[in-house]
């Protein structure tokens, strides 16, 4: 990015950049998933015979972990509707109940308890919105954005991203694949050098944004140093490192 290039858009990662998952332990997250699966199971049971829930539960988690393992190899995004459908096929349900939209609706969209926005997020977004900027969000999620929007709404974030919110599940590719960044830029109507991207993951966010030609800001926590997060074989150097979103405001004020 040349110093003369004005920033016209800011893109954010969602999880652990805007929304803090540190208070959701893995077992709480699994229990939350399980409550979503039980809703799906009740919906199915109202419309036909079902085997034991445990079989579906096991098939779902197996499918989910498999699809993420594959996705991390080829950056093809897992999709919750595929995971649910494959899990149902695995337990012998192959009838008209395997309807993607109906399954997603039954699964629901409430975020797990314990999530919160980082305290600096909303005040900083309010200040950023006073600048002449467009805003976008890219999340590496298997849920379509229609489901992830409920998390944004619950946490008071939806209003800050009125136009461009992309879930990998909808686009088909996970960050760091270039396609998802290109899609966001196109929807924002800006060139790569006119955008700034903020994320917490060095590979998905920082490497991905830089490969797409976007100025990449690493949002990390105090005490987490770059050397411990990268290897000499695959060095990643963020264009800027911040511990709080407020640290972006001077850069944006200078560059808009
Ligand atoms: Mg993240």
Set out the fold topology.
Layout: E1 9-13, E2 19-20, H1 26-45, H2 53-74, H3 80-90, H4 100-107, E3 116-117, H5 121-128, E4 134-139, H6 145-154, E5 164-167, H7 168-171, H8 178-188, E6 195-199, H9 202-211, E7 215-219, H10 226-229, E8 240-242, H11 248-255
Helix pairs in contact: 1-2, 1-4, 2-3, 3-4
Bound molecules: magnesium ion.
What descriptive keywords fit this protein?
256 residues, alpha/beta, DNA polymerase, domain 1, six-stranded parallel sheet, 11 helices, elongated, binds magnesium ion
Question: What this model shows, in words?
Answer:
The protein is α/β, with parallel strands linked by helices and 256 residues long. It folds into two domains: 9-21 and 115-255, Rossmann fold; 26-107, DNA polymerase, domain 1. Helix content is 45%, strand content 12%. The protein is built from eleven helices and eight strands. It is elongated, with a radius of gyration of 20 Å. It starts with 8 loop residues before the first strand and ends with a helix. The model has no long low-confidence stretch (mean pLDDT 95). Magnesium ion (MG) is lined by residues 13, 15-17, 199-201. Residues 13, 15-17, 199-201 line the site of magnesium ion (MG).
Q: How big is the Rg?
A: 20 Å
Structural class: alpha/beta
Shape: elongated
- Tell me what the CATH architecture of the largest domain is: 3-Layer(aba) Sandwich
Q: Can you count the helices?
A: 11
What's the main sheet like?
Answer: 6 strands, parallel
CATH topology assignment of the largest domain: Rossmann fold
Helix content: 40-55%
CATH superfamily of the largest domain: HAD superfamily/HAD-like
